[in-house]
Amino acid sequence: MVNKISFNFLKLSTLTVLTAISLSACADNDQLMRETVAARIASPAWMVDRQVSAGPYAITVYERMHEKGMPANIYIEGDGAIDEPEALNVFNPTPNNPVGLHLASRDNAKNLAYIARPCQFSGLLSDEQECNQEIWANHKEYGRAEIDAYNTLLDKMKARYGVTSFNLIGYDSGATLAALIAADREDVLSLRTVAGEFDNIAIAPYKRQLRNIPQLHLSGAQDTLNTPEHTQSFLQFIGQSACIKNTHIQEAAHFAGWVDKWPEQLKRPLPTCEKSLNDYEFTPYTPEEKPIYYPRMGGLKK
Fold first, then answer.
1. Closest C-alpha among 78, 76, 77, 61 to residue 161
2. DSSP string of the chain, one letter each residue
3. Is the pLDDT of residue 300 over 80?
4. Residue 298 located in a structural domain
5. Which of 66, 120, 206, 266 lies at a C-alpha separation of 20 to 30 Å from 133?
6. What is the largest CA-CA distance in the chain?
7. Is residue 154 a contact partner of residue 182, using CB atoms and an 8 Å limit?
């Protein structure tokens, strides 16, 4: 009887180990497939991948930098697999369909880079800590650590390639991160968002800075995840500004309808930020002091 129990326990233990190995192999294969998809998107656009240490993260970047002394277009990915409809139980935030990378691959700019989010395609710098769900799921709090990490990454990019400034493009929740970075830096020329998810609480301290940055927000009329009404709510929250425009793309949904149209959308002119009367600060008029005239005594001199 004891031998039978021991044998059954051994079978159960072996099955558990084999299941764990099988799941691990599946996870590795799944990650490899996602990385292969990204490489196939980036390669025809001559975008090369590398990992950049920034804060606690090793952030994956696909980039093409050809011209010093010029701006760079920076694409920031969204939530990735967290939002994808087929991913109900997500253990890996690396996107199966990296829309931000798709958009970057259709951009003909001399200097451009696609920046993944923490734990997408890569992990943490410390081998003692895993890039688990507790870490990457909390990135939507948009804490100072993540903003500082991206600022560090952009500073390293400027030093490495000699670019002067940045045009930021944020997809999905990358829109909020791009807005926070734009408000936090002095070298951001413009902000564009695509199917943006906006966290008004995180953005609230930066409302005034954002009003002075040229920006264009694109929303899809068929998007049921981040609806056009969501974008409109963000614009009302920021307040009226000559620097801000928004446009609805009739055929676009959240994950579809953007890539083929992107070269055309890039041609849309950004606002010129011409100030309205409400944008000027009121300075009260102070008359200049003039010397007091004292008339000569004794009449006119002849």
1. 61
2. -HHHHHHHHHHHHHHHHHHHHHHHHHHHHHHHHHHHHHHHHHGGGT-EEEEEEETTEEEEEEEEE--TTS-EEEEE---GGGT-TT-SS-S--S-SS-HHHHHHHT---SEEEEEPPTTSS--BS-TTS---HHHHGGGGG--HHHHHHHHHHHHHHHHHH----EEEEEETTHHHHHHHHHHH-S-EEEEEEES----HHHHGGGHHHHTTS-EEEEEETT-SSS-HHHHHHHHHHH---TTEEEEEETT--SSSSSTTTHHHHHTSPPP--PPPGGGSPP----PPP-PPP-PPTTS---
3. no
4. no
5. 206
6. 142
7. no
**Amino acid 210: pLDDT:** 95
**Contact assessment for residue 212 and residue 243, using Cβ atoms and an 8 Å cutoff:** yes
Q: pLDDT digits over 71-130, tens only? A: 999 999 998 766 555 554 456 788 889 999 999 999 999 999 999 988 888 766 566 567
Give the pair of three-digit tokens for residue 121. Answer: 């395609």
Indicate the average pLDDT of the chain: 82
First to last CA, the chain: 142
- Tell me which of 27-41, 96-110, 183-197, 247-261 is least confident: 27-41
The reply to whether 28 falls in a domain is: no
Number of domains in the chain: 1
CATH number assigned to the domain comprising residue 96: 3.40.50.1820
In a domain, 243, yes or no: yes
pTM for the complete prediction?
0.80
Distance CA 67, CA 51 (A): 21
Residue 67 belongs to a domain: yes
Q: How far is CA 48 from each of CA 44, 60, 234, rounded to the nearest angstrom?
A: 10, 10, 34
Give the structural domain span for 129: 46-266
Tokens of 195: 């199917």
Amino acid at 301: K
